[in-house]
Amino acid sequence: MWVGPIFLAPMLACAAVPQPNPAHCPVPLAIEALAAPATDDIEACLKKVGNRNFSRKGKTLTIHWGGGVQTYKDKPVDGEGYEAFRYAGYDARSGFHVVQGTGYEWTWTILIDHNGGQTYSAQGALPGSVSPDRRFVFSGLSEQGCGKELYVDALLPRGQKGKTPERVELSERVGVCREGTTSVPQRVDWLDAERARITWSCGDDRPIDQTMLVRINGQWQPDRLPCHSATAAQPAYVPNNGKLAVGMSVAEVEVLLGGDAQGYQVDPLDYFGKKRLTRYWMVKSRKLLVDFENDQVIAWRY
Hints:
Layout: H1 4-15, H2 32-35, H3 42-48, E1 54-57, E2 60-65, E3 68-73, E4 84-91, E5 96-102, E6 107-113, E7 119-121, E8 125-130, E9 136-142, E10 148-154, E11 168-169, H4 171-174, E12 177-178, E13 181-182, E14 184-192, E15 195-201, E16 209-216, E17 219-222, H5 250-257, E18 263-265, E19 276-283, E20 286-293, E21 296-301
Antiparallel strand pairs: 1-2, 2-3, 4-5, 5-6, 6-7, 8-9, 9-10, 10-11, 12-13, 14-15, 15-16, 16-17, 18-19, 19-20, 20-21
């Protein structure tokens, strides 16, 4: 009696499922990596627990993604030709395998899509950097005199092949680099696919700061600049010259009013009709009620 298919199918299914990193071997893209004990070599940590996502033979690192393998070979030479690659694990939230590359004077992060095998180079990817819809990656790249600059990479939709858009520098619009004040991006916390809270380091003798970036009309706009005094910490972008207007989106109103709504009012009858919701913000000790229909402003009142 031939029993091959009975055993073969489970084996193939198992091989196609990537193993997540255990808590003590955190993948660098995860926010949890910031709170975990420092681990200098994630690859060695994963090897000890028998992780099957990768294998190594001497200088050659092989990553096993869902439909094949991707290989990287170390170049242990002196000078600018030096390259070394270490496997850093699988990020279950984004579906990427993570490889850390080290060159002569620089480092970078390689993302490998487990399902499609597409690879992206995201130099300096920050913890939490991949957006929930996997369309964007925020990176902090070291630059002379300014610590780390903030960049954003646009990724192709899952399964799509082609040339990715160029990396866009955001620092001039969203960060600060001047004598005595330098903002250095540390982590990214996504509220949704087009709103990200950036945590900044402001220097040894100054506390951290957080600002909100919102994607409006294809551009990332900050609610204000980080690491500023209270008088200087004004929005760097104000929709419609600081005035509410019919047709504004929820994101635009949040930027205009400095953050998320502080509460909601819902008419039960609206559940049976159009998608309508009233959000409210406290503005100078007064409650501003803004009516939205299909997430666009239709009216407001105090």
